[in-house]
């Protein structure tokens, strides 16, 4: 039977996310060494346990990066999940820890897989990142609608893919701008600018304008 | 009142908390089943090898038929080969190989301890030649193996390491490859390179053969015997009714390759080393063919097809 995953504290040894104001990644699940050893030895039940624990974090990561507004996005996210788990299974023997928790290693594979698929998708070629004042800082508290998960999800889906990916990797997964730059084959400046512009755009989408308020 | 009963969750203070509060959507319910099928269909994954070991072995009827067929063929080969005193031991040792290989065929990529002794016996054919004693018992042969030095095991270890990367269709070929340190220099799974281009490995094999047997004729005889056993196994396993398109295509390609090798063997003026090379190639190609045909039959018994096994997943 599938066990409930253990509590998800952010491991003190995790290299990412950063220690201060660290977002609570859905991947941050401590995997017992014994379970990992069994999975590495080919125990299918042990690997299924890992799969069950991480299938939602991987699927949702893919969904956020690839988008969820178009038909077929869920299927693509499911394929990313499949590919990620296949790679995890194939590379289990290569995972040595060395200060990096298993969930961090798995998440990295998932991020790479999702971004690789993103780069291969033609429909994102014309998906232009947000443009604007790079130095503008996203001000003020969050709009109240940010607490509305459905509204926030819809607003995220409306963002350009690259902008949304930066936002998610930074805010939800705790990657630094430098790490995001490497992952997305861009610069840290690009990451910072997209973060600022994406935050402003989300705020605009979540806060009703004067026109919509009086409609 | 419902609102009063509902526990109040604090509003997110920043985007981090807002994103973390988003519920995780569930993927499709068939995700694990899809993954399992992909893992099982990719023979290169550890799961396929482990699953092969755990799965039900080949049908007993097939294993029994293979053993009976091999047992029926061997006396004929033994009589036809007119063994000399120095090769009798090796023929007797080789007799152990088909008795072992079919039993171990059910587990693609799996190795059986039973296969090793007979393989090491072939690697130790020099001491056997020196004995010049006819031994029909595999137990006696295994005792001889116990006296075999470590160096004879090294090619087998190398083959074993490379065999670990071999795909399921070559499982049958793996057993003899692992068991015959002398004959296995490259994994049968290395299709093109193993059978066509790996002259360096073949030359190395030949050097080992020359060193250990001291007689190219004896080497060729051993290869011919191995080839005949593999022919019998292919004849037993091949069933055109269950062949998949890709499996049949592979089988045709290997048949053609064997035909070319046979055509080369029929040429006059071939040197001993050239003949040995060609027989070596024939044995390796026959192993591949035997592996494919056997695996097709095995997959059919499981309701699967060979085409699925060819899907490569990164």
How much beta of chain B, percentage-wise? under 5%
Q: End-to-end span of chain B in angstroms? A: 55 Å
Cα-atom radius of gyration of chain A = 18 Å
Structural class of chain A: mainly alpha
Overall pLDDT level of chain A: 83
Number of helices of chain B: 17
Characterize the largest beta sheet of chain B: strand count, sense, and whether it forms a barrel.
none
Shape of chain A: elongated
Would you count the extended β strands of chain A for me?
Answer: 0
Strand content of chain A: under 5%
Binned, the helix content of chain B reads: 55-70%
Mean pLDDT over the full residue set of chain B: 62
Low-pLDDT stretches of chain B are 84-204
Structural class from helices and strands of chain B?
A: mainly alpha
Bin the helical content of chain A.
55-70%
Radius of gyration of chain B: 25 Å
């Amino acid at each position: 039977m599938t066990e409930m995953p253990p509590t998800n504290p952010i491991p003190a040894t995790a290299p990412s996310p950063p220690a201060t104001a660290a977002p609570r990644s859905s991947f941050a699940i401590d995997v017992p060494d014994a379970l990992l050893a069994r999975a590495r030895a080919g125990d299918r039940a042990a690997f299924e346990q890992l799969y069950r624990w991480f299938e939602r974090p991987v699927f949702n990561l893919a969904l956020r990066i690839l988008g969820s507004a178009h038909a077929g996005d869920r299927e693509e996210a499911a394929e990313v999940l499949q590919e990620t788990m296949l790679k995890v299974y194939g590379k289990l023997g290569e995972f040595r820890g060395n200060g990096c928790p298993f969930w961090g290693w798995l998440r990295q594979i998932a991020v790479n897989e999702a971004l690789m698929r993103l780069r291969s998708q033609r429909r994102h070629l014309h998906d232009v990142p947000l443009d604007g004042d790079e130095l503008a800082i996203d001000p003020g508290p969050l709009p109240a609608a940010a607490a509305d998960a459905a509204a926030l999800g819809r607003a995220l889906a409306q963002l350009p893919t690259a902008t949304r990916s930066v936002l998610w990797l930074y805010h939800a997964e705790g990657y630094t701008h430098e790490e995001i730059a490497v992952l997305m084959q861009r610069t840290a400046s690009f990451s910072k600018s997209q973060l600022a512009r994406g935050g402003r755009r989300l705020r605009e989408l979540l806060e009703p304008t004067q026109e919509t308020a009086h409609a | 009142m419902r609102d009063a009963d509902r526990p109040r969750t604090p509003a997110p203070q920043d985007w981090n908390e807002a994103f973390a509060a988003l519920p995780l959507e569930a993927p499709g319910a068939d995700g694990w089943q899809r993954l399992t099928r992909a893992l099982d269909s990719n023979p290169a994954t550890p799961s396929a090898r482990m699953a092969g070991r755990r799965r039900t072995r080949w049908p007993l009827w097939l294993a029994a038929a293979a053993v009976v067929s091999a047992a029926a063929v061997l006396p004929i080969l033994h009589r036809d080969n007119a063994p000399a005193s120095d090769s009798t031991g090796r023929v007797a040792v080789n007799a152990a190989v088909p008795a072992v290989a079919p039993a171990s065929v059910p587990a693609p990529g799996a190795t059986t301890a039973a296969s090793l002794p007979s393989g090491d016996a072939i690697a130790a054919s020099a001491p056997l030649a020196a004995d010049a004693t006819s031994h029909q018992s595999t137990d006696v042969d295994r005792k001889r193996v116990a006296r075999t030095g470590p160096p004879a095991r090294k090619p087998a270890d190398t083959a074993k390491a490379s065999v670990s990367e071999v795909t399921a269709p070559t499982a049958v070929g793996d057993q003899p490859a692992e068991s015959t340190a002398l004959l296995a220099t490259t994994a049968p799974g290395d299709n093109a390179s193993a059978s066509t281009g790996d002259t360096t490995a073949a030359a190395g094999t030949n050097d080992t053969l020359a060193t250990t047997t001291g007689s190219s004729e004896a080497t060729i005889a051993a290869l011919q015997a191995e080839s005949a056993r593999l022919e019998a196994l292919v004849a037993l396993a091949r069933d055109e009714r269950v062949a998949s398109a890709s499996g049949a295509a592979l089988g045709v390609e290997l048949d053609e390759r064997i035909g070319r090798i046979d055509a080369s063997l029929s040429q006059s003026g071939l040197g001993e080393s050239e003949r040995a090379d060609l027989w070596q190639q024939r044995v390796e190609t026959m192993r591949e063919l035997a592996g494919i045909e056997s695996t097709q039959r095995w997959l059919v018994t499981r309701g699967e097809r060979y085409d699925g096994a060819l899907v490569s997943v990164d």
